């Protein structure tokens, strides 16, 4: 695992703040009648305007700035001509390279005016609320002297406690000069907490809650080689922030600074 200097972390916070702003603008633009390709084009333009480069394009074979995942799609959804409709559940995942450092963030929202109060809408709202809560509480565990297992255990406790399931084949990760670095950060506890890496001052990690309303088992959704979806076609969502481990507690690097 890599340890960043205070100067490195300051750069990541600047880049991450710009990325947070970009994500907010993309989420705001994502409404009924908007295509995934349009969101991708907007992301490309905003990343250039922010003085950065698209992290995801640094992944071999991936040529998009975003991963856009609708309903049962879990991760790596490529931007397509699909037009969003009211009631869709959309995850926007986006990364930025700024002055040599990556940051990575994702958020999930319900498309359209969701004030109809139907049971289906209320269940979707609950599903997303639980994932967001799991992310915030997991970030609170990201403190010097704690371990990766404290983060993993917290995510698992909240998600499974609400009746949902972790997508166990996908994990959070270290982030810095590379988009994906050690250590891996599972959304569930494997073995004992003591057997997981200790969190140290200067570590920068992406805390990522990846979960499903159904079993959590995933499959490749089509022949594009990227799109992963739930095997049982149940809803999926992702909530992610890049953070730094600091003496005063977790520092959220991808917090919007608008």
Spell out the key features of this protein:
258 residues, alpha+beta, 4-stranded antiparallel β-sheet, 29% helix
Folded structure, characterized:
The longest helix has 24 residues, at 6-29. This protein has helices at residues 6-29, 36-49, 119-140, 148-161, and strands spanning 53-54, 66-70, 73-75, 89-98, 101-110, 165-166, 172-174, 181-185, 204-212, 218-220, 228-230, 236-246, 249-252. Helix 1 packs antiparallel against helix 2 and helix 3 (119-140) packs antiparallel against helix 4. Strand 4 (89-98) and strand 5 (101-110) form a beta hairpin. By secondary structure, the protein is of the alpha+beta class. It has one domain (6-248): Creatinase/methionine aminopeptidase superfamily (Creatine Amidinohydrolase). The strands form three sheets. Strands 6, 7, 8, 9, 12 and 13 form a six-stranded antiparallel beta sheet that branches. Strands 1, 2, 4 and 5 form a four-stranded antiparallel beta sheet that branches. Strands 3-11-10 form a three-stranded antiparallel beta sheet, with no helix packed on it. The protein has four helices and 13 strands.
């Amino acid at each position: 695992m890599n340890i960043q200097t205070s100067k490195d972390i300051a750069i990541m916070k600047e880049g991450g703040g710009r990325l947070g702003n970009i994500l907010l603008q993309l989420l705001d633009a994502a409404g009924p009648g908007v295509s995934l390709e349009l969101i991708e084009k907007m992301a490309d333009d905003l990343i250039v305007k922010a003085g950065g480069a698209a992290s995801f394009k640094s992944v071999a074979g991936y040529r998009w700035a975003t991963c856009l995942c609708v309903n049962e799609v879990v991760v790596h959804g490529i931007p397509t001509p699909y037009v969003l409709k009211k009631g869709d559940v959309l995850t926007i995942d986006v990364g930025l390279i700024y002055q040599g450092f990556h940051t990575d963030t994702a958020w999930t929202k319900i498309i359209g005016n969701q004030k109809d109060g139907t049971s289906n809408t209320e269940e979707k709202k609950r599903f997303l609320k639980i994932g967001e809560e799991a992310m915030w509480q997991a970030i609170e565990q990201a403190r010097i002297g704690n371990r990766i297992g404290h983060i993993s255990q917290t995510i698992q406790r909240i998600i499974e406690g609400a009746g949902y399931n972790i997508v166990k084949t996908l994990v959070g990760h270290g982030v810095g000069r590379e988009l994906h670095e050690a250590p891996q950060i599972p959304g569930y506890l494997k073995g004992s907490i003591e057997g997981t890496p200790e969190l140290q001052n200067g570590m920068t990690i992406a805390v990522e809650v990846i979960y499903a309303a159904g079993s959590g088992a995933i499959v490749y959704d089509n022949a594009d080689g990227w799109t992963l979806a739930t095997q049982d076609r149940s809803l999926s969502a992702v909530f992610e922030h890049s953070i730094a481990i600091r003496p005063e507690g977790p520092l959220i690097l991808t917090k919007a600074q608008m």
